[in-house]
Amino acid sequence: MNISSRIIHAGIRLIFVIYLFVLVKIILFKMQIIEPGFLWNQLYSSLSHPGLVYQRLLTGNLVPFREITRTMEMMTGHSLFNLIGNVAIFVPFGLFIGIMLQKKGISALAALIYSLLMSLLLESAQLLLRIGQFDVDDLLLNTFGGLVGYFIFSVIAMAIRFARAEDTSSEPAL
Questions:
Q1: Phi and psi of 107, rounded to 5°?
Q2: Domain boundaries defined on the chain
Q3: How is residue 105 annotated by DSSP?
Q4: pLDDT tens, 47-64?
Q5: How many angstroms separate the CA atoms of 39 and 52, rounded?
Q6: Single pTM value for the model
Q7: Those residues with Cβ within 8 angstroms of residue 46's Cβ, 6 or more apart along the chain or in another chain
Q8: Other C-beta atoms within 10 Å of 8: how many?
Q9: Residue 174 pLDDT more than 70?
Q10: Which of 31, 73, 108, 133 has its CA 20 to 30 A from that of 45?
């Protein structure tokens, strides 16, 4: 790997870390400034009282497609923004997963699993830190967004490979 390739890969990893920071800031903290001491107290309280965590889990949405269906029926601006936003915010995740793991030959199933696990991590953090509600529909929408991003990456990668193949096949033989 040459120096320019290393710089590009380091830049991609840096942008991914920044994206993850923004993702956490939006999903967990709703762009608010939250003190680490507050988070520690929330986590300590949750771990000290697991029954309360279970009760909070039950007050969240555990029924797949409940909120999605409600959004489609009501079509308020806020609910539609929430629905589209939950998909859109994970599209870059799928793109990054495709880019960073392309040499390993990542599949759509692997991208789905990575997206699901990242979303589950964030939803669980909301539950344990008591700073949001657990919502299975967010898992579905985020995972779908990750897959959309992965498929965008796949289409672009296929177009690049096709263009490169065209370039090499059009060169005159020596």
A1: -100, 170
A2: 3-169
A3: T
A4: 999 999 999 999 999 999
A5: 16
A6: 0.90
A7: 52, 53, 127, 128, 129, 130
A8: 12
A9: no
A10: 31
